[in-house]
TrEMBL record:
Molecular functions per Gene Ontology: histone deacetylase activity
Native source species: Leptospira ellisii
Top-level division of the source organism's lineage: Bacteria
UniProt name for this protein: Histone deacetylase
InterPro entries in alphabetical order: HDACs, His_deacetylse_dom, His_deacetylse_dom_sf, Ureohydrolase_dom_sf
Amino acid sequence: MSTGFAYSDDFLQHNAHPRVPHFESSNRLLTCMDRLSKAAFFPYFYKPEIRPISAEILSLVHTEYHIQKVQDSAGQKGYFDGDTPFTEESWLSAFSAAGSGIALVDALIEGKIKNGFSLLRPPGHHAERDRIMGFCMFNNIAIAARYLQLHGFKKIFILDWDVHHGNGTQEIFYSDPDIFYASIHQYPFYPMTGSYDEIGYGLGKGTTLNVPMPVDSHNAAYIKAFEKKIIPTMERFEPEIILISAGFDAHKRDPLGGMKVTTLGFEKLSEMVLSSAYHLCEGKVLSFLEGGYDIDALAECVEVHLTILDSFS
Ligand SMILES: [Zn+2]
């Protein structure tokens, strides 16, 4: 079986206002694609067709008002929030980015892939049920998790290693005992959520894990947190599949994050999760791009992450 790779030119259509440069730009993906096109493994990946997601599937996670807001931005220019501009075609990028997760899930269920990665934008983990926020329109990973549940997956583990806390994903699953949300992130930092004592609510109490890390944390601190906290928690939960919010903005060269993780560090973290997944859930892992704003560091990290996915498929 092979690794799935989801990408579409639709993801390039969302652009910040021409006169206002934005970190979350289409150059991020173009640089990754340029690098990947030279990688020996790339031609062997299964590349599903990406279609814009339906409002019906989006409504598994988002409110009608939220979906409508993105839809109504078609042909317009403006700001959803201070950090999240939109232009005429941004809605298409958002609908197709969310659709890429559906395409990977379908390919997994059909037995075409064992694991997969979506090189998508806009990212998703800050988007709440009813709130567009922090470059994120739809919560791509949350939608994939709900879609997996529709197809009989009961226990799903979401690991978020973006340098920012995924407040949106946490909010969506905070009282859900079947979807575990674990995040390792810089703290205190944007969006200021993700402290140790946020552990879930009601039936979901105990299925949220936050591992806040001080600024300047290196590879060793991340590896230790994975060994001591994240991997054991994942093993106790016994998920049927693992989803990764794979942001690479904890990289030492990232202009937004304040961490010191290297490309080799991300390779090691990827390897730790995939080898654990191999024993826990037959290696079923779907990974979604979140942040990562030094475009060369991002492209390096995406390549090493894909190398690990490839070696486990
Ligand atoms: Zn981030």
